[in-house]
UniProtKB/TrEMBL annotation:
Gene3D superfamilies: lambda repressor-like DNA-binding domains (1.10.260.40)
Originating organism: Variovorax robiniae
Protein name in the entry: Helix-turn-helix domain-containing protein
Residues making up the signal peptide according to the UniProt record: none
InterPro entries given in the database record: Cro/C1-type_HTH (IPR001387), Lambda_DNA-bd_dom_sf (IPR010982)
Annotated SUPFAM superfamilies: lambda repressor-like DNA-binding domains (SSF47413)
Regions crossing the membrane: none
Domain HTH cro/C1-type: 17-72
Length: 76
């Protein structure tokens, strides 16, 4: 199954936002993993924008750092 490029971009953007939030909080990946209840490798995968990470983990990490996600229709 191919993932649309817009979806891939959104996943990468969420990962970058999660990393920025973690760094702004002064936490390492291990601390983020402990808070979220996932392995440190999952944090690294979220931050790199890997599309195979469970959406609950991605949204959970964003929520840890007070980052919300807004859904809106695409401009197509």
């Amino acid at each position: 199954m191919d993932i649309h490029e817009d979806a891939l971009r959104a996943i990468k953007d969420m990962g970058a936002a999660a990393k920025q939030g973690r760094l702004a909080a002064g936490e390492g990946q291990a601390a983020a993993g402990a808070r979220l209840g996932v392995h440190v490798q999952t944090i690294a995968r979220i931050e790199s924008g890997e599309p195979g990470v469970a959406i609950g983990h991605v949204l959970g990490m964003l929520a840890l750092y007070g980052i919300s996600v807004e859904l809106r229709p695409s401009a197509s």
